[in-house]
Amino acid sequence: MSILTFDQIVGHSIPLQQIEHSLTGERVPHAQLFFGPPGVGKTTVALAMVGVLFCQENRQAWIHGTFKIKKSCCKVCSSCRKLAHGNHPDLVRVGLEEKKTQIGVDQIRQLSQFLSLTPLEAQWKIAMIEDAALLNGSSANALLKTLEEPSPHSLLILITSRPGRLLPTILSRCRKIRFSALESEDLIQILTRLKPEADPYTRAEAISLAAGNVAKALECCTLEKVEMQKKFAQDVQSLGEGGLADLITLAEYWADPNRFSMALEQLRLWIGQTIAQTLQESNSAGDKKCEEWLTFFVWVTELVQRTQIFNLNRQLVLEGVNQKQDLGGLHPPTPLLFEESKTEFKSKVKNKTLGAIPQTLFFINR
Asked: Torsion angle, CA of 100/132/119/147, rounded to 10 degrees?
């Protein structure tokens, strides 16, 4: 695992300024929330911040309280090397366990116990919760206790694309760092460096399909993936012209393991574009239609997660999605999520930044 320094990170100038300011202040906030669309680099930035806090070149600054730190890790000291290899004793990363759909209370209790211990090598004990929106009721309450009584020299970093699903009491105790979808210029710079073998056409198409998501852009940056995504878009548009037999044929084709995840990802982006067009209808009928599509979007998103975890029949999933059947007892989002989504979307529409709208959907509901 490669840990980037702040000056190696492309984009996110405002979040980086906020983080650098907090690191050079008299007190580093004990809990921070990194939120924004998925795949834009929140975890990458969080690890860069951890690198600064762990780097031995900054150790004396923390000990003596001078706060004259270097804003990037050196990458060569033993702490930096351990962080890069994922075995630093003062960092724990909490995420979804195998075959689970939520982060359990036992995981949070272990995290709290970890943070209560004295740091072994660094000046900090740091815990990262990746996709904190997956906390269930019990684990969220357990985390709240840790936030209310933080241990000295402990730091908790929550990362999520769905801050609306966190308890308000958790949100109120975190310093919030908001991330946005990357600009096309940023993605061009990243793909040019990481995908030098791709031709300009493939890179441009990948950026168009990614909607600001760097992870998606890297995944799509092959001619085969670009052509596959175009075929899926054509298949979806032709659905209304055929009958059940066409639907079954389409579902059978896209249920192939090499195509399935991409098909559902594109379906969600297509729903996002549909909602964007609907929101331009500034009337109650448009809002009602938007709510119906948002319900469908959240249903599809949760169904994708369950399909990946429980290995559901992919062909039946696709047939059910296209027929809007309830395959898994999924629930629609709350009215609050609707209002957050509509407000966010209307702001994008007003500013004519529709390209970011599919990412806004992920940010609210994913």
From this structure: -120
Residue 263 near residue 225 (C-beta atoms within 8 A) = no
Buried b (16+ CB within 10 A) or exposed e, 299-308: bbbbbbebbe
- C-alpha separations of 106 from 95, 113, 135, 156 in Å: 12, 11, 11, 17
- From the list 90, 42, 81, the residue with the least C-alpha distance to 62 is 90
Element (H, E) at 152: none
202 contacts 223 by C-beta, under 8 angstroms = yes
- Token duo for residue 170: 């958790």
354: part of which helix (H) or strand (E)?
none
Burial of 292 (0-12, 13-18, 19+ CB in 10 A): middle
Q: Is the dihedral of CA 11, 12, 18, 20 positive or negative?
A: negative
In angstroms, the CA 207 to CA 222 distance is 11
Residue with tokens 């509901």: 365
pLDDT digits (tens, 9 = 90+) for 173-216: 999 999 988 888 999 999 998 888 888 888 888 888 777 888 88
Dump pLDDT digits (tens) for 13-36: 999 999 988 887 667 889 999 999
DSSP letter assigned to residue 103: B
Task: Look at the pTM and tell me if it is higher than 0.85.
Answer: no
The owner of tokens 């309450």 is 141
Q: At 37, list the tokens.
A: 């669309």
Q: Is 9 helix (H, G, I), strand (E, B) or coil?
A: coil
Question: Quick one: DSSP state of residue 209?
Answer: H
Question: Is-contact 177 33, C-beta < 8 A?
Answer: yes
How far is Cα 270 from Cα 296, in angstroms, rounded to an integer? 12
